[in-house]
Predict the 3D structure of the following.
Amino acid sequence: MKKNIFLIIVLAVIGIGLLSVSYYNSNLQAVDSSSSDAVLIQIPSGSSPNAIGDILLKKELIHDLTVYKIYLRLNDKGSSFKAGDYVMTQSMPLVEIIALLETGGNVKTTTNIIIQEGLTLLEISDVIGSQFSIDKERFLALANDVSYFATDFLYLQDDNIVSLEGYLYPDTYNIYLNSTEENIIRRMLSGFEEVYTSIIEGNIPEGMDLNSIMTMASIVEGEALLDVERPVVASVFYNRIEENWQLESCATVQYALGERKSVLTYEDLEVESDYNTYQHTGLPPGPINSPGTASISAAINPDSTEYMFFLAIGDGSHYFTDNYDDFLKAKAKYINN
């Protein structure tokens, strides 16, 4: 009887041991061997092996925290883990994850993003979304909440500024990969702040404010390709405002339509929008894009001309005139032919 009890105990211990070994070995395997989705993790400086295990478990890169700890103890691992940014997948077994942690971070912490002149808020969100894991709806919601940023960026305290359209300065930015929507917006607003301080502040013409300057600059940005022509284009629009003429800027119509069209139809020119300068006189309510420095400078310091018309002639430049008949002749020469 005693022998039978002893045998049962021995068999039970062996069975438990085999099950434990099986459980241990199975939990060394990949969480999902078929997954190829990248998982970005950050290991802060000074993180203990146990803290790193918590991160791996939270990111669902390991099955069991206890198995992870046992593996480290049995194999004398963990003391050489390195802080940094890592890209891992659920198809990586524990031994591969441990080896990577000993090698060090395998991804850059920052990347360059290029925001070109003349992009709208929506287009900027698309560019950023192509390189960062952002919520574009949240990005646009923040960009339409001027008051949220006005305390930190005093130039936004102009009552006429209704969104950040025009104020996310176009430039090349080196940005952390884990940046939030708000982080990125603040970085770009800081970029504009430098431009505001260097060329705008104290130089706004009488009768204008920051919003009207940036609105004019954005229209110039949308119409002119050559920097040398921007002050001339600005002069045409200022001359039209002086005469209470409609600006008739195709760039404003495209903004009102919400799309860029190579050719506008007569129906397009009749779209009802406060931004349609074929239908309304004066400047639209706000900028239609993010203008560069050259266009901002042109809006502040336009050339002194009597031009009332200009026409794109197909090579990136424009024909300028103060005479409508000349404009029609140029149109017949460069467009109709």
